[in-house]
Amino acid sequence: MPPDTPAQRPTPRAPEVAHAAPARKLATGRRGPADPVKSLMHRHRELCERAVDPLEIAAGLEAHGVTDRTAARYRHRDVFSLAEELFARVPAVAGEPVDASCTPARDIETRAAWSLRALLPGAACLATFVALRLTEGVLDGGARLAIGTGGGLLALIGLALALRTGPLCADGRSSGAAGLFGCWLLGYVLYGDALLHQVLSGGPEGPWDITPAPLLGLAVAVAPAAWCAHLFSVHAHRKLNGSRALEEFAAGVRPLLFAAVAFFLCVLGGLLYLAGLGIGAGGSQVGAAALGVLLLLARLLTVHGFPEPAATGLAAACAVEAAAPALVLAGRLPGLDALARPVDALVAAAGTGAVPAVACGAAALGLLTTATVALSRASAHTAA
To answer: Fewer Cβ within 10 Å of end Cβ, the chain: N or C?
Structure first.
């Protein structure tokens, strides 16, 4: 059976490459030892053989440090042009099937499926709060605790399902440590403000009150987060298909990232406001909004192949939130009262909610800076 020809590859640019391939194949024999592309072709042969289109080769070359300036040494105007020649000159081999559950969904049924899963955490939290409100004064504390615990478990299961498929699927790239950091941050939404208040007042003297409204807003925001991630991925792929240089692609993707984050922040702000009206005031709305943006950016980085900076950002926010009550407690020791002064000053100026706002806001800003660089690379969008 004859080997596959470049024109047989399933690529959106097949007509263009099909016309270019024969000329390149004929020119291969004339290049000889002076062929500047030959060494690069052998060095990245596996990448070229398994690529389904020139864009995948361009992204892979970029990931290995090949820039438009480097492409000029191979007699090409940019990496995309160089990738097209490599795609035409290296025959394809049968590759492993791609898991479609973690690719940007484009058909209506698939989008509906992961959209419904993204609604599960918010639906579970909302049902739990409604049940607790209806049973207030009817059931004893043990029964209400069971309802709250069961609802929390259902919300966590729904969140796990929402993160397994669709645009928030990380395809095994997420670490267990990142999950623990996320659980800490969500737990602080419920208990952190009340705990810090008691510590500052001379406690802790439990039990302390919880602030569920921000958690409800964050749970419902999983669905818009999934859609923002989906739209960012889809439009980034379109930019990749239409770009002719790496700088052009990067310049087009950065506004998409900022728009996705800004849109999610607006939606999250509205959801947090509605949750506060429905359940009652309590908790830091600004801190919860900063946490939502932090979690979205961390997930985007993880989905697109950058789990380490995502986990680092989450860990930094956890460290600041844990340090606040620890510094206040340490400040009670003789001669160490200066340790508590930064926390005292921050709380006196903006309340206990300033701690998660500063922790998550600073971490989110750091991840946004990282994402601006990392997600503007073409190689970040080949496996997403």
So the answer is: N
